[in-house]
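Troubleshooting entry. The earlier prediction with D-MYO-inositol-1-phosphate gave an output that would not parse, so I re-checked the input for stray whitespace and re-submitted. Clean input:
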Amino acid sequence: MSDLQNFLDIATAAALAGGEILQSYLGKVENAIAQKDRPGDLVTIADKAAEAVILDHFQRHLPEHAILAEESGALGNQTSKYLWAIDPLDGTTNFAHQYPVFAVSIGLLIDGVPQVGVIYNPCQNELFQAATGLGAKRNQQSIQVSRTSQLDQSLLITGFAYDRRETTDNNYGEFCHLTHITQGVRRSGSAALDLAYVACGRIDGYWERGLSPWDMAAGIVIAREAGGRVTAYDGSDFQMTSGRILATNGYIHDSLSQELIKVTPLTVRINTGS
Ligand code: IPD
Ligand code: CA
Ligand code: CA
């Protein structure tokens, strides 16, 4: 068995175990929801419990690898070329509201390049998997991106980072503009699932800013292996540290990129009454 297939199997077992924990807590966390640094950025007992199970799995199977986990930070051998980016619950706001759109996301970067990805949505029982050169699958069936080639016939998806109230770089202008010129822009609340949906052809293109490696690493591999294209907004090489991603079926990539980079920020002033 190749190393990548072995890593994919280990990540899959961890994601399934994490997903089982999430499901066991669904609807039962109302007294165990805390806010992190920013309004709306939540963490629940389920995020922590799922992460603990996933970390335990990696520590048993790949103790020599490095880990970057959303709730625990950097762990393991930080000089390793293997870095696992782990989000035990992508879509915490949805989860806290019992809105069944969330997932475990586990991606492996080798020398900084995403090479293995697993995304598991326990509510839909959907498992997305990919590794470089091994193709992308949904529930063991091969998946491919859509063939939509015209922006005005496309369905897009995006998200809004938790710092949206603090910056004019809030994605509101991009959302309005692209809503106007496409068949629609969805907002799921899970960046990992957004990327998985590009991969399986449900969505033609996705963009977002303010993301972390654990939000994107797995989905990048899955989207690329399904035939998708992943870059910076302007079409240049994707940079994980930028937090900014444009992922499409490839056919609409250049036109979506051109529209994205010409948008001017839309500032929202909200009268809070204070
Ligand atoms: C969030 C989700 C959401 C995206 C946010 C992320 P979390 O992750 O992926 O779709 O818009 O920027 O932080 O907090 O639910 O793990
Ligand atoms: Ca996340
Ligand atoms: Ca999370």
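This one parsed fine. Residues 151-262 form a domain with the D-Maltodextrin-Binding Protein; domain 2 fold (CATH 3.40.190.80).
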